[in-house]
Amino acid sequence: MGSKLYGIGRFINADSLIRYIEERRHGDGGYCFVSVLNDTNVNDTYYAVKIYNLLGLEIPEKETTIEFLERAIQPQTAVVAIAMALEGLAILGAEDVAMEHLDIVFTKYSPSEGKFAVGLGGSEEFGTATPLEATYWVVKAFKAIGYEFSADEKDAIRAFVMKFRNGDGYGVKGPTTTMTYQALRTLHTLGYRPPRSQHFRNCEICGEWGGFTEVPYSLPPYLEPTFYAARGLELQRETPTCPRRHVLFIRELQNPNGGFRRSIELGISNFQNTYRALAVVDFMGRFL
């Protein structure tokens, strides 16, 4: 796999980015976004793996990181974190290791029994994971490791996801960019082809700002909806209206330490934000 560093380096400081990631790797194979802390965790390690994979770079001491992710799959671990560990193992070429731990997933997530994540625990977006978020992560992880849901399980998941259909998107009280993408990605991964949503287009900001918002016709833009909207446009094979403006928005989010924050106004760097920023630049750069 060739490195994408040169291409992405046209838009952001790639050297400081790489230093930011490398300096936060620890001897146990895990990563922690605060370099002075030896508090390695699944979230940071997963995103470190995703960053290296996106850039087409070799992951340092890969076997140690595989061992770290496998150790993280425990009965008490939140289902989103378990799904991250499974997908991370797949990226590292250890799908067989991931397959050995599916029994733990099924104690928390079993569509045939109407269980859409028991004891949800930690979330990427909301403090406590929503069942839709957990579904998105589990379906994505199972796809990565090569596990195929049965036809009945797929139908059960589809029926569950469709409960969140809200106008032209998906959400609880109203459609949001995050939940709309998570729902659409889940349905596509299972082989369904839902109608296109205009939600992502309605949340695109050009002109002075750039980026995308969580709900239409609002300000300011943040990194999370910008990432999910970019993924949504890619999923629907659509072109962003102002890709250069979006890249400029992302450039403004890079901190002096090389990592990225979530908004122009404030925020510390972390691995989640950094991966999302890179993914947006990678997508938008195709249209420049």
From TrEMBL:
Per its record, what are the GO molecular function terms? Answer: catalytic activity
Q: Which UniProt keywords apply?
A: Repeat
What is this protein's name? Prenyltransferase alpha-alpha toroid domain-containing protein
Source organism of this protein record = Thermococcus celericrescens
Q: Where is the signal peptide?
A: none
Coiled-coil region(s): none
Q: Which SUPFAM superfamilies match?
A: Terpenoid cyclases/Protein prenyltransferases
Occurrences of domain Prenyltransferase alpha-alpha toroid (ranges): 14-79, 133-284
Q: Which domain of life is it from?
A: Archaea
Stored Pfam families:
Prenyltrans (PF00432)
